[in-house]
Amino acid sequence: MKVLIVESNPELGRVWQRHLERQGAEVTLADSQEAAILALYGTPFEVIILDLVLESGSALAVADFASYRRPDARVIFVTNTTFFSDGSIFAHSSNACAYVQSNTPPEDLAAMVEHYAAGR
């Protein structure tokens, strides 16, 4: 299972990465839109964990590019804001499969990743 994590907070990204790697996933960590796009060119990810609020770039641009370049990849959006809390993210991103808070326990996030990767 190949997972791309796009997260501006390096500590949080590494926590998720380590947990997923312990579950057997191959994980690539990107901290910006540019790094995520470059990763998507080279690797067929099954799941993308994508922070809605990136310090550099746009999460929706990453999701849009992923829907073109890796149409089978599912996107789990994470955020620490209330932006899109009405569920409208699913109308804006056709590859969105989940929307969770950034403080979701890593084991719960890993279970979601495994679930959505199995469906691909």
Q: What is the total number of structural domains?
A: 1
What portion of the residues fall into strands of 2 or more residues? 15-25%
Q: Which CATH architecture is right?
A: 3-Layer(aba) Sandwich
Poorly predicted tracts of residues? none
Main sheet record: 5 strands, parallel
Overall geometric form: globular
Kindly state the percentage of residues in helix: 40-55%
The total count of helices amounts to: 5
What descriptive keywords fit this protein?
single chain; 120 residues; alpha/beta; Rossmann fold; five-stranded parallel β-sheet; globular
How would you describe this protein?
This protein is of the alpha/beta class. It has one domain: 3-Layer(aba) Sandwich (Rossmann fold), CATH 3.40.50.2300. It is 42% helix and 22% strand. It has five helices and five strands, in the order βαβαβαβαβα. It has helices spanning 10-22, 33-42, 59-69, 89-92, 106-118; strands at 2-6, 26-30, 47-51, 74-79, 96-101. Strands 2-1-3-4-5 form a five-stranded parallel sheet, sandwiched between helices. Helix 4 (89-92) links the parallel strand 4 (74-79) and strand 5 (96-101). Helix 1 (10-22) crosses helix 5 (106-118) and helix 2 (33-42) packs parallel to helix 3 (59-69). 33% of the residues are buried.
